[in-house]
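As a warm-up, study this chain.
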Amino acid sequence: MKRPSLLVLRDVLEAFPAIHRRALLLCTSALVLAGLTAVTQRLLTRSSPDLLSGALCSAASRMLASGIEGSTAKPRPTTSIETLSCQRLPHVPGKSVTTALVTFPPLALSPAHRHPGSVTAYVVKGSIRSQMQGSTAHTYAVGSTWFEPPKALHVFAENLSATETAELLAVFVADDDCGPLVIPEPSS
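Now compare it with the structure written out below.
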Protein backbone atom coordinates (compact mmCIF):
# COMPACT_ATOMS: atom_id res chain seq x y z
CA MET A 1 0.00 0.00 0.00
CA LYS A 2 1.34 3.43 -0.95
CA ARG A 3 1.97 5.76 1.99
CA PRO A 4 0.15 9.11 1.97
CA SER A 5 2.34 11.84 0.50
CA LEU A 6 2.33 13.99 3.65
CA LEU A 7 3.79 11.12 5.70
CA VAL A 8 6.53 10.61 3.12
CA LEU A 9 7.32 14.34 3.23
CA ARG A 10 7.44 14.26 7.04
CA ASP A 11 9.94 11.39 6.95
CA VAL A 12 12.09 13.19 4.38
CA LEU A 13 12.06 16.41 6.46
CA GLU A 14 13.21 14.49 9.54
CA ALA A 15 16.47 13.73 7.69
CA PHE A 16 17.39 17.42 7.54
CA PRO A 17 19.26 19.22 10.34
CA ALA A 18 16.96 20.84 12.92
CA ILE A 19 18.04 24.35 11.87
CA HIS A 20 16.43 23.83 8.44
CA ARG A 21 13.34 21.87 9.46
CA ARG A 22 11.03 24.70 10.50
CA ALA A 23 11.58 26.79 7.37
CA LEU A 24 11.29 23.73 5.16
CA LEU A 25 8.12 22.62 6.93
CA LEU A 26 6.45 25.99 6.43
CA CYS A 27 7.40 26.19 2.77
CA THR A 28 6.66 22.58 1.89
CA SER A 29 3.29 22.84 3.63
CA ALA A 30 2.35 25.74 1.36
CA LEU A 31 3.39 23.79 -1.73
CA VAL A 32 1.60 20.63 -0.59
CA LEU A 33 -1.59 22.58 0.06
CA ALA A 34 -1.30 23.82 -3.51
CA GLY A 35 -1.30 20.23 -4.73
CA LEU A 36 2.42 20.13 -5.57
CA THR A 37 3.30 17.21 -3.29
CA ALA A 38 5.16 15.12 -5.89
CA VAL A 39 7.31 18.05 -7.04
CA THR A 40 8.08 19.00 -3.44
CA GLN A 41 9.02 15.42 -2.58
CA ARG A 42 11.43 15.21 -5.56
CA LEU A 43 13.10 18.48 -4.50
CA LEU A 44 13.45 17.31 -0.91
CA THR A 45 15.13 14.06 -1.85
CA ARG A 46 17.60 15.60 -4.32
CA SER A 47 18.81 18.86 -2.75
CA SER A 48 21.10 20.08 0.01
CA PRO A 49 19.42 21.82 2.98
CA ASP A 50 20.97 25.24 2.28
CA LEU A 51 19.90 25.36 -1.35
CA LEU A 52 16.61 23.67 -0.68
CA SER A 53 15.23 26.07 1.91
CA GLY A 54 15.80 28.96 -0.47
CA ALA A 55 14.38 27.19 -3.52
CA LEU A 56 11.27 25.85 -1.80
CA CYS A 57 10.56 29.03 0.13
CA SER A 58 11.07 31.15 -2.96
CA ALA A 59 8.67 28.92 -4.93
CA ALA A 60 6.12 28.96 -2.12
CA SER A 61 6.44 32.73 -1.72
CA ARG A 62 5.96 33.37 -5.44
CA MET A 63 3.02 30.98 -5.52
CA LEU A 64 1.37 32.59 -2.50
CA ALA A 65 2.06 36.11 -3.72
CA SER A 66 0.46 35.55 -7.09
CA GLY A 67 -2.22 33.10 -6.06
CA ILE A 68 -2.58 29.61 -7.40
CA GLU A 69 -4.14 29.31 -10.84
CA GLY A 70 -7.65 27.95 -10.43
CA SER A 71 -7.39 28.15 -6.66
CA THR A 72 -9.68 29.92 -4.24
CA ALA A 73 -6.72 30.72 -1.98
CA LYS A 74 -6.26 34.42 -1.38
CA PRO A 75 -2.91 35.98 -2.29
CA ARG A 76 -0.84 37.17 0.65
CA PRO A 77 -0.89 40.84 1.59
CA THR A 78 2.01 42.93 0.33
CA THR A 79 4.22 45.47 2.01
CA SER A 80 3.85 49.23 1.81
CA ILE A 81 6.73 51.70 1.63
CA GLU A 82 6.50 55.23 3.00
CA THR A 83 9.41 57.47 2.02
CA LEU A 84 10.30 59.58 5.05
CA SER A 85 13.13 61.63 3.55
CA CYS A 86 15.48 61.87 0.59
CA GLN A 87 18.55 64.12 0.71
CA ARG A 88 21.56 64.57 -1.54
CA LEU A 89 24.86 63.68 0.09
CA PRO A 90 27.00 66.81 -0.33
CA HIS A 91 30.26 64.94 0.37
CA VAL A 92 29.42 62.12 -2.10
CA PRO A 93 28.63 63.70 -5.48
CA GLY A 94 25.86 61.97 -7.41
CA LYS A 95 24.47 60.06 -4.41
CA SER A 96 21.54 60.56 -2.06
CA VAL A 97 20.28 58.92 1.13
CA THR A 98 16.63 57.91 1.38
CA THR A 99 14.95 56.78 4.59
CA ALA A 100 11.75 54.75 4.33
CA LEU A 101 9.37 52.89 6.62
CA VAL A 102 8.38 49.48 5.25
CA THR A 103 5.20 48.04 6.77
CA PHE A 104 4.42 44.32 6.68
CA PRO A 105 0.76 43.64 7.55
CA PRO A 106 0.08 40.22 9.12
CA LEU A 107 1.27 37.43 6.76
CA ALA A 108 2.59 40.00 4.25
CA LEU A 109 5.13 38.97 1.66
CA SER A 110 7.66 40.98 -0.30
CA PRO A 111 8.56 38.72 -3.24
CA ALA A 112 11.94 38.60 -4.99
CA HIS A 113 13.36 42.04 -5.76
CA ARG A 114 16.50 44.18 -5.90
CA HIS A 115 17.38 47.73 -4.89
CA PRO A 116 19.26 50.29 -7.02
CA GLY A 117 21.69 51.13 -4.20
CA SER A 118 22.96 49.92 -0.84
CA VAL A 119 20.34 49.27 1.85
CA THR A 120 20.54 48.89 5.60
CA ALA A 121 17.37 47.56 7.25
CA TYR A 122 16.49 47.93 10.96
CA VAL A 123 13.47 46.08 12.40
CA VAL A 124 11.42 48.48 14.55
CA LYS A 125 8.32 46.34 15.18
CA GLY A 126 7.52 42.61 15.08
CA SER A 127 9.81 40.19 13.30
CA ILE A 128 10.66 39.70 9.64
CA ARG A 129 11.90 36.56 7.94
CA SER A 130 14.20 37.40 5.05
CA GLN A 131 16.57 35.73 2.62
CA MET A 132 19.24 37.08 0.32
CA GLN A 133 20.46 35.03 -2.64
CA GLY A 134 23.29 32.70 -1.61
CA SER A 135 22.34 32.59 2.06
CA THR A 136 19.78 30.84 4.22
CA ALA A 137 16.59 32.52 5.43
CA HIS A 138 16.88 34.33 8.76
CA THR A 139 14.28 35.77 11.13
CA TYR A 140 15.08 39.28 12.39
CA ALA A 141 13.50 40.54 15.62
CA VAL A 142 13.12 44.13 16.87
CA GLY A 143 16.53 45.81 16.96
CA SER A 144 18.09 43.50 14.34
CA THR A 145 19.70 44.82 11.18
CA TRP A 146 20.90 43.53 7.84
CA PHE A 147 22.69 44.99 4.83
CA GLU A 148 21.97 44.53 1.12
CA PRO A 149 24.59 45.48 -1.49
CA PRO A 150 23.41 47.34 -4.60
CA LYS A 151 21.33 45.18 -6.97
CA ALA A 152 21.71 42.05 -4.78
CA LEU A 153 18.79 39.63 -5.10
CA HIS A 154 16.53 39.75 -2.05
CA VAL A 155 14.77 36.39 -2.49
CA PHE A 156 11.90 37.30 -0.15
CA ALA A 157 10.93 39.04 3.08
CA GLU A 158 7.82 38.17 5.04
CA ASN A 159 5.90 38.64 8.25
CA LEU A 160 4.94 35.17 9.50
CA SER A 161 2.62 36.53 12.20
CA ALA A 162 -1.07 36.13 11.45
CA THR A 163 -1.99 38.88 13.93
CA GLU A 164 0.84 41.40 14.33
CA THR A 165 2.15 44.01 11.91
CA ALA A 166 5.93 44.21 11.43
CA GLU A 167 7.90 47.30 10.37
CA LEU A 168 11.42 48.06 9.33
CA LEU A 169 13.31 51.28 8.75
CA ALA A 170 15.27 51.10 5.50
CA VAL A 171 18.11 53.47 4.69
CA PHE A 172 19.08 53.54 0.99
CA VAL A 173 22.19 55.11 -0.52
CA ALA A 174 21.67 55.40 -4.27
CA ASP A 175 21.90 57.79 -7.22
CA ASP A 176 20.78 61.40 -6.76
CA ASP A 177 17.38 61.10 -8.35
CA CYS A 178 15.56 59.71 -5.26
CA GLY A 179 13.82 57.44 -7.75
CA PRO A 180 12.29 53.99 -7.31
CA LEU A 181 13.59 52.08 -4.29
CA VAL A 182 12.52 48.59 -5.38
CA ILE A 183 13.23 46.73 -8.62
CA PRO A 184 10.83 43.74 -8.85
CA GLU A 185 12.44 40.50 -9.98
CA PRO A 186 10.72 39.03 -13.05
CA SER A 187 8.86 35.78 -12.30
CA SER A 188 10.49 32.71 -13.77
